[in-house]
């Protein structure tokens, strides 16, 4: 059975702009990239005739690779989900999940169903993939309704109200998470998190529409070692594993289960052998996570000794690809049931906050 706990936001970041371990209030650049397991059977996009695996997007009857971050103007995304110099070769496709062979090499036929492969927007492909992933949401104490933005701040947070990570807007009486607005705000946020290079943090524009702008550290480099940051994780090991791409540091993610075991040892996980490298549902990065417990149905994942009923936030899971995945809250009532089951003070003030 899966232990009845939420790992308190210790999921590692996807980009260099994210701290080595994310507090619960920290904003993910592209939320679901690292917070949910990758189910290869993604829902086909519009005008799609095949089921494409994780890390790809559908273009008619073909599966084309996604690279995150997207490739530059003189690069193409290879079938290994890595950016390569030059134009994509003909037939740069990934086998689809329907059992048939991939499309034969050769120039793509000209159709009116959409843009040609060399004109497809890589950002849109990435964002479309992310939009299909479950959103991460947590039950936390917050005003259920609001009159001003200050009503929405998380009480008791180490991040001051109005600073990135604890910033909201009040829209039609509902609290809506907000992004960063300035470099100074991001510097303050990084200082609160005790980041070694806090002065270099800045506010960056999100790639996808509807995603708040985010605080992050983007470093210049000559070699990959220039990108490493201080802490108890050695340089070259997840989450301190980067590449130097065209003079800019890019987060590499994990490359193997063995790397994740070493990472777990470095951060003091009680049983490092349980950590494995799981590829994100979209893009080319992997993240070190505990190996999901096996399941056939969601109920297999519940902790029978928990005071929280099976199926309620805190003891609710999805069963994806035969593995248990901790599920997010669904709304105010869900959080009310969660808080009541734990007999939390001010249970009526717990609300479902989407990150």
Structure description:
This protein has 355 residues and is α+β, with helices and mostly antiparallel strands. It contains 5 helices and 16 strands. It has a domain at 56-131. The strands form 8 sheets. Strands 1-2 form a two-stranded antiparallel ribbon. A two-stranded antiparallel ribbon has the order 3-4. Strand 3 and strand 4 form a beta hairpin. The longest helix has 10 residues, at 122-131. The model is unreliable at 1-46 and 102-119 (pLDDT under 50).
Protein topology:
Elements lengths: L31 H4 L20 E4 L2 E4 L9 E3 L5 E3 L36 H10 L5 E5 L26 E4 L2 E4 L5 H10 L9 E3 L9 E3 L25 E4 L2 E4 L5 H10 L8 E5 L6 E5 L26 E4 L2 E4 L5 H10 L8 E5 L1
Antiparallel strand pairs: 1-2, 3-4, 5-16, 6-7, 8-9, 10-11, 12-13, 14-15
Structure summarized in a few sentences:
The protein is α+β, with helices and mostly antiparallel strands and 355 residues long. It has a domain at 56-131.
Main features:
alpha+beta; two-stranded antiparallel ribbon; 5 helices
Q: Give the radius of gyration.
A: 21 Å
Widest sheet: strand order? 1-2
Parts with pLDDT < 50 across at least 5 consecutive residues: 1-46, 102-119
N to C succession of SSEs: HEEEEHEEEHEEEEHEEEEHE
Average pLDDT score: 77
Assign the structural class, choosing from mainly alpha, mainly beta, alpha/beta, alpha+beta, or little secondary structure.
alpha+beta
What proportion of the residues is helical, as a percent range?
Answer: 10-25%
Strand elements, count: 16
| Percent of sequence in beta strands | 15-25%
In whole angstroms, the N-to-C terminal distance is: 27 Å
- Which of globular, elongated, flat, extended, rod-shaped describes the shape? globular
Quick one: biggest sheet? 2 strands, antiparallel
Count of DSSP H/I helices = 5
């Amino acid at each position: 059975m899966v232990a009845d706990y939420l790992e308190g936001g210790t999921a590692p970041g996807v980009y260099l702009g994210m701290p080595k371990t994310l507090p619960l209030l920290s904003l993910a650049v592209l939320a679901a990239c690292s917070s949910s397991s990758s189910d290869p059977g993604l829902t086909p996009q519009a005008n799609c005739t095949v089921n494409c695996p994780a890390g790809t997007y559908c273009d008619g009857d073909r599966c084309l690779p996604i690279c995150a971050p997207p490739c530059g103007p003189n690069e193409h995304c290879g079938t290994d989900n890595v950016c390569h110099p030059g134009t994509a070769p003909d037939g740069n496709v990934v086998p689809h999940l329907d059992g048939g062979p991939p499309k034969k090499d050769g120039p793509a036929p000209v159709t009116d169903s959409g843009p040609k492969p060399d004109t497809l927007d890589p950002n849109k492909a990435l964002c479309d993939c992310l939009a299909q992933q479950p959103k991460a949401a947590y039950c936390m104490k917050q005003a259920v309704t609001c009159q001003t933005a200050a009503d929405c701040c998380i009480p008791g947070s180490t991040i001051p109200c109005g600073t990135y990570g604890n910033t909201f807007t009040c829209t039609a009486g509902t609290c809506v998470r907000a992004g960063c607005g300035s470099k100074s705000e991001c510097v303050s946020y990084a200082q609160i998190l005790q980041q070694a290079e806090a002065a270099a943090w800045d506010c960056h524009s999100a790639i996808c529409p509807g995603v708040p702008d985010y605080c992050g550290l983007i470093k210049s480099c000559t070699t990959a070692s220039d990108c490493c940051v201080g802490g108890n994780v050695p340089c070259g090991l997840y989450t301190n594993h980067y590449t130097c791409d065209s003079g800019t540091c890019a987060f590499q993610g994990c490359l193997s289960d063995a790397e994740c075991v070493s990472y777990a040892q470095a951060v003091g996980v009680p049983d490092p052998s349980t950590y494995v490298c799981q590829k994100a549902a979209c893009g080319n990065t992997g993240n070190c996570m505990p190996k999901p417990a096996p399941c056939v149905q969601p109920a297999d994942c519940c902790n029978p000794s928990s005071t929280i009923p099976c199926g309620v936030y805190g003891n609710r899971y999805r069963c994806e690809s035969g593995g248990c995945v901790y599920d997010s809250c669904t709304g105010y009532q869900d959080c009310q049931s969660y808080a009541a089951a734990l007999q939390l003070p001010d249970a009526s003030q717990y609300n479902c906050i989407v990150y």
